[in-house]
Amino acid sequence: QVQLVESGGGLVQPGGSLRLSCAASGRIFSINVMGWYRQAPGKQRELVARIISGGSTNYADSVKGRFTISRDNANNSVYLQMNKLKPEDTAVYYCNADLATSLRARDNYWGQGTQVTVSS
Fold first, then answer.
1. CA distance 32 to 90
2. What's the pLDDT tens digit per position in 69-104?
3. CA distances from 111 to 2, 7, 55, 79 (A)
4. For 3-41, how does the pLDDT look when each residue is reduced to its tens digit (9 = 90+)?
5. Sign of dihedral through CA atoms 84, 87, 89, 91?
6. Residue 70 burial (CB < 10 Å; 0-12/13-18/19+)?
7. Cα 70 versus chain centre, distance
8. How far is the C-alpha of 18 from the C-alpha of 95, rounded, in Å?
9. How far apart are CA 16 and CA 32, in angstroms?
10. Dihedral sign computed on CA atoms, order 55, 77, 62, 14
11. Which of 102, 105, 97 has the alpha carbon at shortest distance from 3?
12. Exposed, middle or buried: residue 44 (CB in 10 Å: 0-12, 13-18, 19+)?
């Protein structure tokens, strides 16, 4: 009943920028944490960035200073602005949300993923 839908992936040259968007829909009571993870071929899924409901953020060391996560609580959305992209940023990017569908029901949800390819 809860869906996370990502958009904004694509092919970009090294040094370029992309903005990922993710919108959560369905029966949502509250959202605590929203974030972005990525998984490159042959590697484990890793945290890229996350943002708590109050606005606190965490970033992977590899993206600090290049990526910015933001959130629109009114629209249950999260964004990832990616600048100065590098080939090693190539991966499938997944949106993630820790949310409650009622006062007593809380779970973790994933989007379907969006491909980001950084290549010349």
1. 28
2. 999 999 999 999 999 999 999 999 999 999 999 989
3. 10, 10, 21, 13
4. 999 999 999 999 999 999 999 999 999 999 999 999 999
5. positive
6. middle
7. 10
8. 15
9. 31
10. negative
11. 97
12. exposed
